[in-house]
Write a structure and sequence with these properties.
- The chain contains four helices and no strands.
- The protein is mostly helical and 93 residues long.
- It is elongated.
- This is PQ-loop-domain-containing protein.
């Protein structure tokens, strides 16, 4: 039996809310970098490691068959992290 079948409605709702907040936390930084056209103070390794860590985390959560919000969270976070990493590489040139 999958882990998502054992989840209560409350855990699905709270998981969804947490996923939304976790995923959008990088949006203000992306916007701020774009508006200023610089990424001063952001190390490239941080953006790279955040983007890369999303891959094994996403695979693990999919294989564990956790609820859907938790399965898509690493992909969204990894995408936003890759955008920040690309901004760091682009604006620091």
């Amino acid at each position: 039996m999958s882990a998502s079948a054992d989840a209560t409605p409350a855990s699905n709702v709270l998981g969804t809310i947490g996923t939304v907040f976790w995923c959008i936390q990088l949006v203000p930084q992306i916007w701020y970098n774009w508006r200023r056209k610089k990424t001063e103070g952001l190390p490239p390794a941080m953006g790279f490691l955040w983007a890369i860590c999303a891959v094994p985390m996403g695979v693990y959560l999919i294989l564990q068959e956790v609820n859907l919000p938790m399965q898509i969270q690493p992909q969204i976070f990894g995408t936003f992290s890759a955008i920040i990493w690309a901004q760091i590489l682009h604006y620091d040139q």
